[in-house]
Design a protein that fits this description.
- The chain is α/β, with parallel strands linked by helices and about 350 residues long.
- The protein is about 40% helix and about 25% strand.
- It is built from 13 helices and 15 strands.
- β11 and β12 form a beta hairpin.
- α1 crosses α11, α4 packs parallel to α5 and α8 packs across α12.
- The protein is globular and about 55 Å long.
- The structure holds nicotinamide-adenine-dinucleotide (NAD).
- Nicotinamide-adenine-dinucleotide binds next to α1.
């Protein structure tokens, strides 16, 4: 494939990032069609008269000038759209998670494989330059045998309660990125999960059936750990840090700040705040993930974060949710059994 024709579904917060990246940065890909439920068609076509637009995603997926579909719609709509795209022989990039049901997630991953369709999950943090460099150092043995990974992942503020209700909750919506990052850094599979969660920021979160603050311990097959702390609200901005501790040393990835200046005065030593949110903090990673998606299609390479990665992260999120509910550690093998059970929905 010399040039990839892409349909983008969902022009919300994340969809707009991908739209701008593809239209501005890649000569081997172009957007031929867009679908969004709320967009004003006339306005969109005034700005992009060469791009087909429809409020109906199915109409867009079915077009002959579409090779690949980017799914950036709310989580609850992902599975049906992935399925339609696969059935139509279109390659898929989907934002996390694929679905809130484990069995559907597993079957979509299998369906893509059986159909010979490439499927990539939007685990963009893998492609952040700092995290990539940390992973490379681990693989090169720079810190010896890794024993503990610590991930701090705190949002600057709560999303709307409507968003929370349809998101699958903190573990499935937010921590899922951190679960993927832990697997990616360690290059090992998680076997057991212990998680606790609280409502400390807004009682409406609890009324919506979710938590806003959580601590998760992941245990890998060789007994080593990852510890993840999540909050939906850090008053100083988007807090995204990583620490990897091994027999030969430690790697710290600090926050990306608004600037690197350090102000010294009689009150102390002051740094600027972290970048505001994912749109600013992960700019480079969104660009890189799209570059890799397009490269995998144009040069027939494997996807860098595929269906199996989506399924593993979803299994961990599901186990975390079950652990929080039951107050006990949950083995992934126990949760994997639930894949066979249609009722296993987070
Ligand atoms: N990778 C990341 O860093 C990241 C960041 C934010 C969100 N996400 C994920 O991306 C997805 C979207 O999140 P968002 O924050 O951009 O949401 P959003 O609400 O800002 O945007 C969703 C858009 O999809 C449109 N839409 C809804 N149903 C549709 C349908 N059936 N067909 C076409 N358009 C439809 C809506 O009109 C809206 O414009 C979620 O699954 C979320 O988990 C990922």
């Amino acid at each position: 494939m010399k040039q990839v024709n892409i349909a983008l579904l969902g022009m919300g917060r994340i969809g707009k990032i991908h739209f701008n990246n593809i239209t501005q940065h890649f000569s081997t890909a172009r957007i031929t069609a867009v679908s969004d439920l709320q967009y004003d068609i006339a306005l969109f076509q005034q700005q992009h008269n060469d791009i087909f637009f429809s409020n109906d995603a199915q109409e867009v997926i079915g077009r002959s000038d579409v090779d690949a579909v980017l799914i950036c719609t709310p989580t609850g709509s992902h599975a049906d759209l992935i399925e339609s795209a696969i059935k139509d022989g279109k390659h898929v990039f989907c934002e996390k998670p694929m679905d809130l049901s484990l069995s559907r997630t597993a079957s979509l991953s299998q369906m893509a494989e059986d159909a010979g369709v490439k499927l990539m999950l939007g685990f963009n943090r893998r492609f952040d330059p700092d995290f990539l460099a940390a992973r490379k150092a681990v693989r090169e043995g720079k810190i010896g045998e890794v024993q503990i990974v610590k991930i701090t992942s705190r949002d600057p503020g709560l999303p709307s309660v409507d968003y929370i209700k349809s998101s699958g909750g903190l573990f499935m919506d937010m921590a899922i990125h951190d679960f993927d990052m832990a697997r990616y850094i360690m290059d090992k599979e998680v076997v057991e999960v212990f998680a606790k969660g609280l409502v400390l920021i807004d009682k409406e979160v609890g009324e919506a059936g979710d938590v806003d603050t959580a601590l998760t311990t992941l245990i890998f097959a060789d007994g080593t750990y990852a510890v993840i702390d999540n909050s939906r609200k850090a008053i100083y901005g988007y807090d995204q840090r990583l620490e990897i501790f091994g027999t030969g040393g430690m790697i710290q990835v600090e926050n990306n700040l608004h600037n690197r200046n350090v102000l010294y005065d009689s009150n102390g030593i002051h740094y600027s705040l972290p970048l505001d949110f994912f749109m600013d903090r992960y700019t480079k990673s969104y660009l890189k993930e799209m570059e890799l998606f397009i490269d995998a299609l144009t040069n027939d390479k494997p996807m860098p974060a595929g269906g199996k990665d989506g399924l593993e992260a979803t299994l961990i999120a599901f186990a975390a949710k079950l652990s929080m509910k039951t107050g006990r550690a949950v083995k992934l093998s126990e949760v994997a059994e639930a894949v066979k059970n249609e009722s296993a929905t987070a």
